[in-house]
Amino acid sequence: MADHTLVSSDLIWEICRCNNAYLVKRSSGGGSQFSKDPMNLTNKHSRKYDGFVNTKAVGIQPAEKGGITLITKKKKHQNRPSANKLAVTWPSSKPGHKIYKGIVDYTAKHNYRADLRQEAVARASAIRQAAREKKDKPGKKARGAKAKAIAEKES
User: Under a CB-based contact definition with an 8 Å cutoff, are residues 128 and 94 in contact?
Assistant: First the structure.
């Protein structure tokens, strides 16, 4: 059996670009089109970012307990969706800069698309930021002599 697919990714995009399971169309906002594809780093519906079309794609997902999972699509098993994905996970205890360097190094070492590296790091950074616990805002301080006097009477 040959190692390549019988259909080019350009033809797949032309067939699926108007209707597919990952496409989200919104009439508000000027008719914006977004993608729910897990291998799409920016969630924009475009040929460049859609992972189901490209032979080599990169996806970043949150892992359990605040970690980051890098999902890559292998070129070898294109016709077997369950066998063509590889996942690498970094725990939340690992510092952010080491996770970002790991993402860049992994994608560069395995010859993944260089144009997606910056988007992959940005997505990982956004996921880490969202997973952080928010601090409580301190109460407002009384300003001025009258406000301080009223605050002392109330307490």
Answer: no
Q: Which pTM does this prediction carry?
A: 0.79
Distance CA 124, CA 69 (A): 9
Residue whose token pair is 């924009």? 44
**8 A C-beta contact, residue 35 and residue 24:** yes
**DSSP 8-state class, residue 103:** H
- Is 75 in contact with 67 (CB distance < 8 Å)? no
Give the integer Cα–Cα distance in Å for 103 and 88. Answer: 9
List pLDDT tens digits, range 56-79: 899 999 998 889 999 998 888 777
| Helix spans in the chain (H) | 9-16, 28-31, 96-109, 117-131, 145-154
Please give the torsion angle defined by the CA atoms of residues 94, 89, 13 and 2, in that order, rounded to the nearest 10 degrees.
140
**Strand-pair category, 85-90 with 68-73:** antiparallel
Mention every residue, 6+ apart, whose C-beta is less than 8 A from residue 51. Answer: 37, 38, 39, 40, 57, 58, 59, 73
Q: Give 149's Cβ-side CA count (13 Å radius).
A: 3
